[in-house]
Write a structure and sequence with these properties.
The chain is an alpha/beta fold. The protein contains 15 helices and 16 strands. The strands form four sheets. An eight-stranded parallel beta sheet has the order 4-14-13-12-11-10-6-5. A hairpin with a 2-residue loop joins strand 2 and strand 3. The longest helix has 27 residues. About 50% of the residues are buried. The N terminus is likely disordered. The chain binds zinc ion. Zinc ion binds next to helix 12 and helix 14.
Length: about 375
């Protein structure tokens, strides 16, 4: 089966600067380059909800994420491949990273059965039975034409006892080896391994060692942002990234809020993804330099000022807080569209700010300023 991309160019990562543990770099794929640290908007079912692909690119995003679990159930990976692959199907020509489906299948507690071979589960769409194995996950991600493929893993919810974490991590490492074998050699495409081990430092070390022995194009830190809280996550990130190869991109999965992202970059993470900016946008929540703003709140009803007067996104350039409040309260589609755009724009500005600060050797000052402006809180009501 012929898939999208694949010009023969090798996948690569080069670091351009380092400040403390924070790194700035460039990921090279057959579909283009991605400046790191990078935030990847989530396009779960072949769309970043409420955004045209051109709008996603206009926010500064260079790569989006697609979800294997959702796409395999609907419309189906074979169908996407017949229609020319995911890039063509969703009209996004930049790089795409797909998850392995593992995390989402594991979340279907009660509806799934886990064995050494893989996971069988019932579709949340129509109740049909499906199986996901490392081999099938690699096949689906190949059919989609993904540029960055994730190894199939199991991710236990936290808190979990140590025995459960160890058993789960070791299963994920056996699956990582099977994923590597099934992925094969695909120039221009990358396969990332996923470190597990919960908050247990020695399990994280054992996992990293297993992954390094297999050898991947990039390495993800999995099993965080699953309910452990920011302090515990940062404590883990104080040592987890350094266990992974220095010369490969490090991807923290499913993170997060702006201050989570800043703390992760500070600790040596290069890539992140999260549904938060788009999901918040659809529920009337905005993220700005000054923190979170709830547009549902009546205080905005008469406010002629933009959400953030320094922001250059269409929501802030063209509309008042009063308008955003009104369209949200009226259930108008444009409310989610504008707030999603603003939130994605803010996230990309945040990443660009960190890249510039790292390159300029002033990340600590940048971080102090980031926290100081947030501490002021939202502008006072009119
Ligand atoms: Zn804005």
């Amino acid at each position: 089966m012929k898939c999208g991309g694949g010009t023969g160019m090798r996948f690569g990562f080069r670091q351009v600067a380092r400040d403390g543990r924070a790194r700035a770099g460039v990921i090279e794929t057959a579909r283009g380059e991605v400046a790191t640290p990078a935030f990847m908007p989530v396009g779960t079912a072949g769309t970043v909800k409420g955004m045209l692909p051109g709008s996603v690119a206009a926010t500064g995003a260079q790569i989006v994420l697609g979800n294997t679990y959702h796409l395999m159930l609907r419309p189906g990976a074979e169908r996407v491949a017949r229609l020319g692959g995911l890039h063509r199907f969703m009209n996004w020509q930049g790089p795409i990273l797909t998850d392995s489906g593992g995390f989402q299948v594991m979340s279907l507690a009660g509806l799934r059965k886990l064995t050494e071979r893989g996971v069988t589960f019932r579709s949340h769409v129509d109740g049909s039975r499906h199986e996901l194995t490392p081999e099938r996950s690699m096949e689906i991600q190949r059919l989609l034409g993904s540029d960055i493929v994730m190894a199939f893993d199991e991710c236990p919810a936290l808190p979990a006892d140590r025995a459960r974490l160890a058993e789960s991590m070791q299963l994920s490492m056996r699956w990582a080896a099977r994923s590597r074998a099934a992925f094969g050699d695909r120039p221009g495409h990358a396969l990332f391994g996923i470190q597990q081990g919960g908050l247990e430092r020695d399990l994280r070390e054992e996992s990293a060692e297993a992954l390094r022995a297999i050898g991947f194009d990039g390495y993800a830190i999995g099993g965080l942002a699953v309910g452990e809280g920011q302090a515990a996550m940062f404590a883990c990130l104080d040592h987890a990234p350094a266990m992974l190869p220095e010369d490969r991109p490090r991807y923290l999965m499913g993170v997060g809020k702006p201050d989570d992202i800043v703390g992760a970059v500070k600790r040596g993470v290069d890539m992140m993804d999260c549904v938060l900016p788009s999901r918040s946008g659809r529920t009337g929540q905005a993220w700005t330099r000054r923190g979170q703003v709830n547009l549902k709140n009546a205080r905005h009803a008469d406010d002629p000022r933009p959400l953030d007067e320094e922001c250059t996104c269409p929501a802030c350039r063209g509309y008042s807080r009063a308008y955003l409040h009104h369209v949200y309260r009226s259930g108008e589609m444009i409310a989610g569209m504008l707030l999603t755009w603003h939130n994605l724009h803010y996230y990309q500005e945040l990443m660009a700010g960190m890249r510039a600060a790292i390159t300029g050797g002033r990340f600590a000052e940048w971080e102090a300023d980031f926290h100081a402006v947030r501490a002021e809180g939202d502008i006072p009501p009119v």
